Amino acid sequence: MHIERLEIRLTQLISEERTQNGDYTSLENFIKRIPIGIETVQILIFVGAFRFAGK
Questions:
Q1: Could you read off the pLDDT tens digit of each residue along the chain, which spans 55 residues?
Q2: How many angstroms separate the CA atoms of 36 and 40, rounded?
Q3: DSSP assignment, residue 4?
Q4: Contact assessment for residue 16 and residue 39, using Cβ atoms and an 8 Å cutoff
């Protein structure tokens, strides 16, 4: 349900950036590489998109 709120272009950008420049290493790394608003970051945190960071 929350993922549906993300814009299609943003999801493509996240994927393209990862493909071109490697995996995201932390939440901070992700935010530096993707122009994203705080509300969208909150949605991604809520759905567990940053579990890879171990936090």
A1: 556 666 788 888 999 999 999 999 998 999 999 999 998 899 888 888 888 877 6
A2: 7
A3: G
A4: no
Q: Are the C-beta atoms of 27 and 50 separated by less than 8 Å?
A: yes
Decide if 3 contacts 47 (C-beta within 8 A). Answer: yes
Nearest Cα residue to 17 out of 33, 28, 29: 33
* Alpha carbons 38 and 16: distance in angstroms, whole number: 21
Query: Which amino acid is it at 10?
Result: L
CA 27 to chain centroid, in Å, comes to 8
DSSP symbol at 5: G
What is the number of residues in the chain?
55
